[in-house]
Write a structure and sequence with these properties.
The protein is mainly α. It folds into 2 domains: about 50 residues; about 35 residues. The protein is built from 4 helices and no strands.
């Protein structure tokens, strides 16, 4: 009997991690309610605590913007290269 792995969205993970941070219910109760393993809840809670400062620093957004600009530049270069090569192939036929 095989079971497929569940892929949870970020909003679901955040909801479960925040519920774990509130400590209104135990992790075992949360795991039963959301149908995830308790160790997964601990992991999501730890990630939330570690990355919470980045939300307020704003560094994440600027790093993502720089990475996005680099990727867009690379896409432009590859598009020009593809177009150049496709024109060359049309001439040789």
């Amino acid at each position: 009997m095989t079971s497929s792995r569940s892929k949870h969205q970020g909003s679901f993970k955040a909801k479960v991690a925040v519920a774990a941070l509130r400590e209104e219910e135990g992790v075992a109760q949360l795991a039963k309610r959301y149908r995830v393993h308790p160790s997964q809840i601990y992991h999501w809670k730890q990630q939330l605590v570690q990355n919470a400062a980045a939300i307020f620093d704003g560094k994440e957004a600027s790093e993502n913007a720089a990475e996005r600009d680099d990727l867009l530049r690379k896409i432009g270069e590859l598009t020009v290269e593809r177009d150049f090569l496709s024109r060359g192939l049309r001439r040789s036929r």
